[in-house]
Structures are given as structure tokens and as C-alpha cells.
Amino acid sequence: MKKIVFLFAIGMLLFSCRPPENPSVVTGEVTNITATTAISAGNVTADGGAEIIARGVCWSTSQFPAISDSKTSSGTGLGFFTRKITGLSPNTTYYVRAYATNAVGTAYGEQRNFTTNQEMPIVVTGEVTNITAKKADCSGNVTSDGGSLVTARGVCWSSTQNPTTSNSKIRSGTGPGTYTSSITGLSPNTTYYIRAYATNSLGTAYGEQQSFTTNKEIPTVVTGEVTNITTTTASCDGKVTADGGAEIIARGVCWSTTENPTIDNYKTSNGTGTGTFSSDLTGLSPYTTYYIRAYATNSEGTAYGMGESFTTLAEIEYGSFTDSRDGNLYKTVTIGEQVWMAENLAYIPVGITVSAPTEGSYSEPHYYVYGNSDKDLTAAILTDNYQAYGVLYNWSAAITVCPEGWHLPSDAEWTTLSTYLGDNAGGKLKEAGNYSSWDSPNEGATNSSGFTALPGGYRSYGGTFVGTGLYGYWWSSTQYSTNNAWYRALYYYISNVFRRNYSKDYGCSVRCLQD
Predict the structure, then answer these.
(1) How far apart are CA 130 and CA 138, in angstroms?
(2) Closest CA to 245 of 220, 268, 226
(3) How many CB atoms lie within 10 A of CB 97?
């Protein structure tokens, strides 16, 4: 018995003299995983014969992490422990091991791995800059993609708070990082709320809300059509389409005899506010070209519409004379320095028969009444066409048919007339009004000259009458060639005066010019 006790004592002495060794540690499961955190457990099952002075878990995105990588500290001693891991990146695979340290060294448990969750991005709304009445710039910064590709980023805005991408928005690329978005189409003097946004597979995240107010600007105004033109008056519409974010305190039209008139020239005052208005111009001078623009004024200044121009009507000086040869009374009109007949000549010499349209000559006089084939003069002058349009003459008849003190105008004298009338000269010559004998559209017709040109048609070289209601042709006394002479033409569909030459056997109207 004494021998057994002795041997046990020797054994215990030998055991107590063994050197210490590394601890034993087990890595537990990783739980409660989020996009940036997780909880990991460990269990120190043996201290290796020396005190456990540190324990915890270590982790890395590379395999076999060690305490030289990221780690937690979870006290000392044997036993089970848990620790929260923080500062992780979303959608990232990590490797983790429990560890325990004693005087001999550090031991590690088996390796485990886990993948953090994805999350929505993180985005910061930057400063709003470069603000005007209708535009602004705003920066943004996607500081984290949430572990998933940022497929859209930009800013969204509204005149109500907390705007989303369901409101107005602009897209400014993809991915993380800074960007600047330029916003357009804003309304002046309006407060807007704005947030940066970023979208990944989990959804759309927004930065903090900013607000800004657009600037005021001058209004927007449109110049309408000039109508009801007389010798001294006219009317013009205007429309204020936008107030620029400030009250319209004045609106109307301004005009001058020079281009680009302003409110420092002549103007009307036609109320306040946006919308359509009508202005009446008075005190104008006859036969004068004016330039006109609509205007609108707010606290930021005065805006003008596009410029328009118009010419007031000439003061028409009518007179009359009686042709002593047949007693016909003719109205006359003074245009510039010229005195013209204001009606087509209707004279046929005594003893002359009216020609049928099939009869013609370059050199012998012929007298035609449109639509008439009866050679009897009495019958011809009773027709409606004679009463309305007078007589059509071939050139040989035309050069001799004007009464004493009057003559067939030359090509140059016709040019003097059209030059004096200027733009839209044909319209200024043509008879106008609801009961005009010109066919529609009687383009540009105002008869502002008082000439009262009529569409009497003509007798063509083919022996037919053509074009009442559509055309008016008037001879000049100037030859173009042996068989042709110059004439002037007006048409129902255009407002120009046309200078052309035709065969002398044509039948055209005549307007005599005072000597």
C-alpha cells in the first residue's frame, strides 16, 4: 500500500512539471447577419495549462484570418462568448475564426464564412447653385452603393416637400461618386424642394432635402396681328404669356417710324396681368410705315414681343371728269404726283362696231366687250360686263383711245405708280371689301390707293375671253417689240404687280393718266 501511494505522488509531481501549451477554442455559428454587422460566437474549451489572457473572433475578406486582421476582444478565461462584428461592407463574403491567447500563444478555431446582406445606397444631397429664373444646378454624392450596382442616380424636385422620382427628376449616370445635375424648365420666383437619389436592386434612397427659390425675370409677351388700318388709326392685339414670377403692372403696344420701338416712343396702356389684350392706335400719319411691338412690365423690367410693321392708308383724293365724246362720267384719284382714272375706260368711237372675240389684229384697232359676240354697240353697252369692266382694247386701239388731256400711261409711268405704293402694291391697287368683284382670296386687297383695280379679264390671241373675277390686265403705251407691248397684270391669288409683255392683238383694259 505504501508503494502505491508513493507511485501516485511521483506521478502527480511529474504532471505538475509539464510545460503549458496552446489553448483549445471552437468557432461558433455566425448569426444576425445584416449589411454591415453580424454576431459570431466562440468557446474556449481548454486553457493549455496557462491562463487565457485574450479571446474573441477575428475576420477578413481573405481566408484564415488572424488577430493581425480585424478582431473583437471578448474578455479572458475559459468558456463560451459572443461578440458583435461591425463596420462590414454590404454584400461581401467574410471569413471568421474564434481565437484564444495564453502565455504560449494564440490558437484559432475552425474557419467559418458568411456574406453580408445588400442594402439601399447612401446618397448625399449637395448644394444648389447657379440659380436663375428657370434653371439651377444641384450636386449629389453616392457614398455607398449598398453592395449592389447603382443603376441610376440624380436629383428629383417638386414645389412640395420630400420629392421623389415620381416627381420631376433628372438622371446623372450610374455608380458611386459625385455628380452634378442641371435642372431646367423651372418657374420664376418659385420655391422648390430637391433631393439627390440613387437606385440599386433593393430600391431608391434619397439624400437630405434642400430648398431654393428661383429668380424673377422679365415677362414674356407676344405681338399680335395689326388690323383695322386706316389713314390715322390701327388696332393691334398682344398677349402676356408669362409674368416672369412678378405681377404685370403695365402692358400694351408701342410704336414708332423706326424699328424696335420701346415704351419711350408712342405707347398704349392696356391694363395689367397676363392674358390677351387689344390696343387701339390713334394719331397716325397717312401712308406711313410704322413699326410696332407689344410690351409687358413687371418689377424686373419691360419685355417686348416680336416686331411687326404696317403702313397706314393714303388719304385718297378723288375727283371726276366727263368724257365729252360720249358723256361718260369717270371717277379720278390722285396717287403721289399722278392723277389716274379710278375706273376702266369704256369709250368706243362713234360708228365703230364692237369686235367679236374671234377677230383680232396687231395693227388695226379692235374694241371688245367681255363675253359679247354681238357687233351692235347699243347691245354691247347694255351688258353687265360693259357696265362693270368697261371695254377691252387691242394695243392699236388703246394708244389712241384716251380723251383729250389724258393719255395711255407708259411702261415707266406704271413703274412710277407701283414704286410709290411699295410693298403689297397690287393689294393696294385692287378693289377690296365684301362686295368686291375679285374672286376669293383676293390676296392682300386693301385699295388703299383708291385705284380700284377690277378683274375685267382679257381677250386672248386664241379668240376667247378669259378670266373675269380672276385677272386684270392694263396696257402701257410702250412697245416691247414689233408685235408685243408692255402691260401690267393683277391676280386674285397674289398681291404683287406683274410687268409683262403680250401680243398686241390681245384685248386688255385701259386706265388713262392725266397729262
Answers:
(1) 9
(2) 220
(3) 25
Q: How far apart are CA 182 and CA 190, in angstroms?
A: 17
- How many of the other CB atoms lie within 10 Å of CB of 366? 23
Identify the bridge partners of residue 183 per DSSP, sorted by sequence position. 136
CB 473 within 8 A of CB 492: no
Edge-first strand order for the sheet with 38-46 is: 24-31, 38-46, 79-85
Q: Name the residue among 473, 430, 484 with its Cα closest to residue 453.
A: 430
Q: Report the pLDDT value the prediction gives residue 10, as an integer from 0 to 100.
A: 46
The predicted structure's pLDDT at residue 18: 67
Copy the grid coordinates of residue 434. Answer: 365684301
Helix (H) or strand (E) holding 429: helix 425-429
Give, in order, the Cα–Cα distances in Å from 380 to each of 32, 222, 372: 115, 55, 7
State which residues of the chain have pLDDT below 50: 4-16
The torsion defined by the Cα of 453, 454, 457 and 459, in degrees rounded to 10, comes to -70
Lookup: cell for 186: 423651372
Q: How far apart are the C-alpha atoms of 367 and 388, rounded to whole Å?
A: 16
At residue 446, what are phi and psi to the nearest 5 degrees? -130, -20
Rounded distance, CA 242 to CA 505, Å? 63
For 61, left (φ over 0), alpha (ψ -120 to 50), or beta?
alpha
From CA 79, how far away is CA 319, in angstroms rounded? 130
DSSP assignment, residue 445? Answer: -
| Chain-centroid distance, C-alpha 330 | 55
Helix (H) or strand (E) holding 491: strand 484-491
- Give the angle 448-449-451 at the CA atoms, nearest 5°: 120
Contact 235, 248 (CB under 8 A): no
Give the CA distances from residue 131 to residues 101, 128, 153, 187, in Å, rounded to whole numbers and listed in that order: 62, 7, 21, 12
Selection from 290, 288, 295 nearest residue 308 by Cα: 290
Per-residue confidence (pLDDT) for residue 13, from 0 to 100: 45
What pLDDT score does 393 carry? 98
CB distance 27 to 112 below 8 Å: yes
Cβ partners under 8 Å of residue 49, min gap 6: 18, 19, 20, 21
Provide the 8-state DSSP code for 347.
-
What is the grid cell recorded at 172? 446623372
State the Cα–Cα distance between residues 98 and 87, nearest whole angstrom.
Answer: 18
Question: Residue 173: left if φ>0, alpha if ψ -120 to 50, beta else—which one?
Answer: left
Percent of the chain with pLDDT over 90: 89
> What secondary structure letter does DSSP report for 10?
H
Closest to 451 (Cα-Cα) out of 478, 427, 480? 427
